[in-house]
UniProtKB/TrEMBL annotation:
Localization in the cell: Cytoplasm
One Pfam family of this chain: HGTP_anticodon
Species for this entry: Flexistipes sinusarabici (strain ATCC 49648 / DSM 4947 / MAS 10)
GO cellular component: cytosol
The protein's role, per its UniProt record: Catalyzes the attachment of proline to tRNA(Pro) in a two-step reaction: proline is first activated by ATP to form Pro-AMP and then transferred to the acceptor end of tRNA(Pro). As ProRS can inadvertently accommodate and process non-cognate amino acids such as alanine and cysteine, to avoid such errors it has two additional distinct editing activities against alanine. One activity is designated as 'pretransfer' editing and involves the tRNA(Pro)-independent hydrolysis of activated Ala-AMP.
Family: Belongs to the class-II aminoacyl-tRNA synthetase family. ProS type 1 subfamily.
Highest classification ranks of the organism: Bacteria, Pseudomonadati, Deferribacterota, Deferribacteres, Deferribacterales
Catalyzed reactions per annotation: tRNA(Pro) + L-proline + ATP = L-prolyl-tRNA(Pro) + AMP + diphosphate
GO biological process: prolyl-tRNA aminoacylation
Domain notes: Consists of three domains: the N-terminal catalytic domain, the editing domain and the C-terminal anticodon-binding domain.
Source organism, top-level taxon: Bacteria
Protein encoded by which gene: proS
Residues forming coiled coils: none
CDD domains (alphabetical): ProRS-INS, ProRS_anticodon_short, ProRS_core_prok
Name assigned to this protein: Proline--tRNA ligase
UniProt key word Protein transport: no
Length: 573
């Protein structure tokens, strides 16, 4: 490929819309262009990167027994109503009507469609196990699309779905996909971590996220510093090992706290430790209200409560709803005489003589105790884990927090969809049973963006060779010198014959412009062919990752390039 007839609209300045590193650099390197909020066109360089990620994904999905197909992007609402997700999925689902007034959606994921295909085609246990996947454009109407390809509304995803006869077989399929994903991200030369995760709107009994580690990541990963336990912030378990108060129980009393709404305000005003303040949150579930109590120095985890209650949604009640339920103002809610079921984090059950809201404006209650002043329906792990918490898995280490970018998610679905959509098979005894399902997603664009977040410097992108739009760029430094041009052409053609993904920058531009573009775009190797070095029989090879410029004999240039590429491909594994 020759850059003189290629399309590389690089930018010197960062567009104002760009936020994170990958967004800025993909725009500047001429890889993507914004079409609408959260919707991007992939320009030639960007498309090449996407295709390379797809090639790696296909290689290992196929190796681990999955079979590729392609499903429609537009999905019938009838299937989504069967599964129950038409009403449950929320505003992220882009609903449309055809000319006949029939309901459809742009698929954000394809559990319903694949289950319909399989239930109409698979009848016997002899046809299972089965794992089908596709690489396709999806759409989720994010309330706040941002960060370029990291959180767009339209995106490319690999989604796979497994069907098995029982839980044991389903766990085998799950482990195969787990292994395949590890191979995929290792082959992309990415540093990543596998973490326990919440299944969210997809559903299922358990799931794991694959997180690319990056300081600029938008997600937080909780890990033990002593064992291999890792989880995302929504899922990370907290140990029930809190110290018990041995204080004598005191009678509760009402105190005036004018204008003291926050935990810190109340603690300072009453001169008590913040862990003696207990927050009472009024929450709205699918069709009811509940209260959740957490210690003042802890954060409530609504996802954990949602999963415990087995509901679709848990959210904060509005100010008006709080006033109607408690009779008091927002910021002063408390458990005493509260007409709601009360759930409390485990830490709360060990505290005595604590402070709560008084369900009246500018009023709190001191010396409140469980069993004396109110009752709790259920204690549980309902708070967000924090750095320094004891690891519940090994009991030795403590939690540390790192930043990451979710690039893959695997789920054990169980019979969530096969039961609602009646996807069954006949077992060996001729009995009809529901198939056990799993689903497995990889964000193709997110993987490319995550690679940039993990590999960049002030000059631009530093692609691993496996993902680079071109592995090598040959730069004739003096395009008006016939010998320079001929040598550059010779090296370029020899590398092509060796199967190297190489481009020659034959544009009529100054060397500085070519070098800057090469650094910005992030070609792993740049071969400089210049008049001065050729006089000595040498050419230069610039290694983008190490910023190292080495001089080699002209006749050794191809072999040295192949050697360096191989070294770069294996360096991150």
């Amino acid at each position: 490929m020759r850059l003189s007839n290629y399309f590389t609209p690089t930018l010197r300045e960062t567009p104002a819309e760009a936020e994170v590193v990958s967004h800025k650099l993909m725009l500047r390197a001429g890889m993507i262009r914004k079409s609408a909020a959260g919707i991007y066109s992939y320009l030639p360089l960007g498309l090449k990167v996407i295709q390379k990620v797809e090639q790696i994904v296909r290689k290992y999905m196929n190796e681990y027994g999955a079979v590729e197909l392609l499903m429609p992007a537009v999905c019938s609402a009838d299937l989504w109503r069967e599964s129950g997700r038409w009403a449950d999925y929320g505003k992220e689902l882009l609903r449309i009507k055809d000319r006949h007034g029939r309901d459809f959606c742009i698929g954000p994921t394809h559990e319903e469609v694949i289950t319909d295909i399989v239930r109409n085609s698979v009848k016997s246990y002899k046809q299972l196990p089965l794992n089908l996947y596709q690489i396709q454009t999806k759409f989720r109407d994010e309330v706040r699309p941002r960060f370029g390809l990291m959180r767009g509304r339209e995106f490319i995803m690999k989604d796979a779905y497994s069907f098995d006869i029982n839980d044991k077989a389903a766990e085998k399929s799950y482990k195969q996909m787990h292994a395949a994903y590890c191979k995929i991200f290792e082959s992309c030369n990415l540093k990543y971590k596998v973490v326990e995760a919440d299944s969210g709107a997809i559903g299922g009994s358990f799931s794991h996220e694959f997180m690319v580690l990056a300081d600029t990541g938008e997600d937080f990963v909780i890990s033990c510093n002593s064992c291999d336990y890792s989880a995302n912030m929504e899922k990370a378990v907290t140990a029930d090992n809190y110290a018990k108060d041995n204080e004598k129980i005191l009678p509760s009393q009402q105190v005036k706290t004018p204008g003291q709404k926050t935990v810190e305000d109340v603690a300072n005003f009453l001169d008590v430790n913040i862990n003696k303040i207990v927050k009472t949150l009024i929450l709205k579930t699918d069709d009811d209200f509940v209260a959740l109590m957490v210690r003042g120095d802890h954060e409530a985890n609504l996802v954990k409560l949602k999963n415990y209650l087995d509901v679709v949604n848990v959210d904060f009640a509005s100010e008006k709803e709080i006033e109607e339920i408690t009779g008091g103002a927002m910021g002063f809610s408390g458990p005493v005489n509260l007409p709601l079921p009360i759930y409390a984090d485990n830490a709360v059950k060990y505290i005595k003589n604590f402070v709560v809201g008084g369900n009246a404006k500018d009023v709190h209650l001191k010396n409140v105790n469980i069993g004396e002043d109110f009752t709790v329906k259920q204690f549980g792990d309902f708070r967000t884990a924090e750095p320094g918490d004891e690891c519940p898995k090994c009991g030795k280490g403590t939690y540390v927090i790192t930043k990451g970018i979710e690039v893959g998610h695997i789920f054990k679905l169980g019979t969530k969809y096969s039961e609602s959509m009646n996807a069954t098979y006949l077992d060996k005894d001729g009995k009809q049973k529901h198939m056990i399902m799993g689903c497995y997603g990889i964000g193709i664009g997110r993987t490319a963006a995550a690679a940039i977040e993990q590999n960049h410097d002030d000059a631009g992108i530093i692609w691993p060779p496996q993902l680079a739009p071109f592995e090598v760029v040959v730069v004739p430094v003096n395009t008006n010198d016939e010998n320079v041009v001929n040598v550059a052409e010779t090296i370029y053609l020899k590398l092509l014959k060796k199967g190297v993904d190489v481009v020659i920058d034959d544009r009529d531009e100054r060397a500085g412009v070519k070098f800057n573009d090469a650094d910005l775009i992030g070609y792993p190797l740049r071969i400089n062919v210049g008049k001065k070095t050729l006089k000595e029989g040498n050419i230069e090879i610039f290694i983008r990752k190490d910023k190292e410029l080495i001089s080699v004999k002209r006749e050794d240039s191809v072999n040295k390039t192949l050697e360096l590429l191989e070294s770069l491909k294996s360096s991150g594994k």
